[in-house]
Amino acid sequence: MVMSRTIRFLVLPFTRDHHGELFGLGPEEVSDAAMANFRAFNMVGKIRRSETVVGTIAFSRSGDPARGDFADASILGRYGETPEDVAGRKWGRR
Could you give the number of structural domains in the chain? Predict the structure, then answer.
């Protein structure tokens, strides 16, 4: 069976909770790498989901969406305040 590999480009914005801890607001998919970096850069300092975005990470992932088989993310850019280690963590609202 032939796998259909695709590349997805995403932006993950971060905010701080009431304890000052960074947490992700959920990824946003965009069309390409340039748009991921553009969107990530411009999102810092804006309000998203009633939260102030303090930092973003633009990244890509390749894989087969039908099988849910994706390679590790490739970081395209970091803007503002972002966690040092993002690998292996689920980022989303607590």
Answer: 1
